[in-house]
Amino acid sequence: MADFKGIAEALIEGNAGKVKDLVQGAADEGEGPQKILDEGLIAGMEVVGVRFKNCEIYVPEVLVSARAMHAGMDILEPLLAASGAKARGVFIVGTVKGDLHDIGKNLVAMMLTGTGWKVVDLGVDVDAEKFVQTALDVDADVIGLSALLTTTMVNMKSVIELAKNKDCKAKIVVGGAPLTQSYADEIGADGYAPDAATASEIISSMG
Ligand code: B1M
Hints:
207 residues, alpha/beta, Rossmann fold, 9 helices, 11% strand, binds CO-5-methoxybenzimidazolylcobamide
């Protein structure tokens, strides 16, 4: 019998090898990829998200769980594609122009992948044109902007303005250490999240 609880526990422990074996085992037994994702990987990642938010675990543990999540997703992705399962939405994420910090952005991307979103990660040092053009090309539901520098967070505003000018309908969520809710309001963002777990909650409510 497929061990969904075991998959979730192995993911929480960050045991990528065990996640891979258990996910493969469940798939070999004929369990649907969506069920394995929901009841195994996502169930585990939800626990990781809550513990991270409550400061019971820290960035290194989350990154190890993220690696375990990817190990499971490597097996499930082709199966999900073949079964025609629908993602909850399309989320584009990147660190804004001039900024090379990507650890927080990667956590946000990983949390969203873990909750069933199709994530397009544009990387770091991404200009406004690239965010907006990609959002239009892939019909994104949400664009996530990350900035870690007071000198680069100002570049978020140009993404928001360009999105409006190009009639891009994607909602824009911002985050990063120097950001605040009042700054997000000032530049016209649709949402602000102080951490990756909150980002996942806010963005999921937009899907
Ligand atoms: Co840089 N750096 N750094 N740095 N760096 C900071 C940010 C800094 C605060 C250090 C300091 O002076 N105390 C400072 C910024 C000062 C400021 O502007 N206020 C700083 C500086 C000045 C610089 C350079 C200019 C240094 C120099 O070269 N003179 C330079 C800039 C390079 C550039 O980007 N152009 C630079 C370079 C670097 C490294 C390359 C060495 C490295 C980055 C490696 C990498 O990311 N791959 C680095 C690092 C590691 C840091 C610190 C130490 C850690 C950042 C980090 O990863 N934190 C940082 C000091 C610090 O924060 N203690 C610092 C962990 C991560 C999980 O947190 O990214 O905040 P964070 O993400 C959080 C939330 O912010 C939120 O969720 C995450 C947690 O759940 N979040 C989002 C983030 N994005 C989100 C998006 C969302 C929602 C939430 O929605 C879309």
